[in-house]
Amino acid sequence: TNFKIHNIVPKNYPMVDILIAARNEEVNITACLDSLLALDYPKDKLTIWVGDDASKDNTWDIIKKYSAIYSNIKGMQITTSITQGNGKANVLAQLAQKSNSNWIFITDADIRVPRQWLQAMLAAAETEQAALVTGTSLVIGDAWLAKFQRLDWLYATAMLKIVSDLGIPVTTMGNNMAISRKVYNEVGGFESLPFSVTEDLELFKAVKNKHKTINLWSSKVLNKSAPQPTLLELLKQRKRWMRGAFELPFQLLGLLILEAVYLPTIIILIAINPIMGISFWVLKWLLKYTFEVICAKKIDEKVSLFDSFVSEWYSVLFSLASVLYYFWPGKIYWKGRAY
To answer: Start and end of every Glycosyltransferase 2-like domain (predicted)?
Structure first.
């Protein structure tokens, strides 16, 4: 876990556009926009583009209010489609066409960004000559479901960082990424990508073969996400992610498969030899907890022993539920839309 460290202050401050696709986000978007307005970056070099994707709540009213007060916030109502992709890809494609900066940053309407987000991402891109940069993202919240999501994200995104540092580019995070305008235009933007429920992965795949990509692990680029509020919404999110997982490199897909067969293996082992089975499970959990603590410390976060222990059991049950829900006949639902 000696993660690669990058510079956090860029030599230059290029023009930057931040793109946000918002749909039914009245609960979260105010905190998101407030955090973006607090960014430590020259205001004359920053434009925030927010596209309302046919929201059925007051999201558009909030966007209009902010754009009327702050000249660098631009709101757009998206009513037409120019992509083969999902609604979010369509919104981002149209926002990108309106913008004209050197760098495009993408985040979600339920995200709060740290003040140094832009600086640290750009500095890393400068240092590594990277065309696409992925930051760190964690779920926040005090409810138990939120705590479980937080640890789940911590483990998964830390693994992404490790394999990225090993030279195996895997994916990006659609709520915390930056891509150079030149490369975005080179791959044709979101409008040229095939349909996918994981538009961020499709963009990443189009970039990674010809250009360098990096994943960062730092509190300076730690975006904090609102949790999925219910178990059903969380299952819907994971079904969408699992669809994209089948397009991941075989190395990571192999790790995911090993994780999936872990539970039945433990159950069989406990049935045959309870002491050995339980000992094996405890050892595996302690190793995972140690990994979580080390990774969390690197981004100025903490992990409690109790939360990790309960989350391990929760993870087992949720993994089973996720597999059943994924193979249950039906479409993928996201933000009130079916795909």
So the answer is: 18-187
